[in-house]
Amino acid sequence: MTLATLQHLRSFNPGEHPLNLEPGQIAFNMATENIIQTESDYNIFLYVGNGGNVRVDQGGTVLATNGDVGKGWIRYPLRSMRIQGDNIYGDVSIHGHKLKIEATATSAGELVVPRDSATVATGSDIGSVRWNVTSKSLESWDGNKWDSTSKVSVTSTVPANPSEGDMWLDPSGTSSVLRVYIQSGGGAWVESSSSTAETALQPGNGVTANTLNQIDLIDTGSY
After folding, report:
1. Burial of residue 87 (number of CB atoms within 10 Å: 0-12, 13-18, 19+)
2. Position 57 in a domain
3. Do residues 165 and 131 share a domain?
């Protein structure tokens, strides 16, 4: 067994990395910018020499280049999972198991998701969810935009960022019009209700239904 030496490298400058580490040697970045004081989250970074040729974080992102061969490292965050009253601070990942919330004899079980306004532009992980306090709908991040899981919008203005199958009920004018958004042909809102049977969006007029009597296909060239 080869005993690794302990290299006392440390930095207090945010974003600074060691260039070379011997296999088994470690270094730290303890910049105050890494610490979220309000959450008591002391996110110190630990660098461990692994004898490789790259310098990456634990997710594989390259953090430094031009070091010596065989003196690469991996960076790990040393996060403090703090419990203060009913609050837990820090990132938690659950792999291969279920997150189960149960009711008790005295209280109902519920999952509370983050609340944001429609002005929040980006998410982080695909599949993350939030409650949009402006539109009052549950949304998930698809990698490009927040996609509403509520597919029906009731508004006199065209809904922004629609997805395939979304429905829009326009209450303006003398009669309400229900439209369905289809992605083909560059994307378009198609009227699904009409006072004239020949132009109504229904089976036989450009619509193919599945065995559950749901819309399966809309032929945009049929009307």
Report:
1. exposed
2. yes
3. no
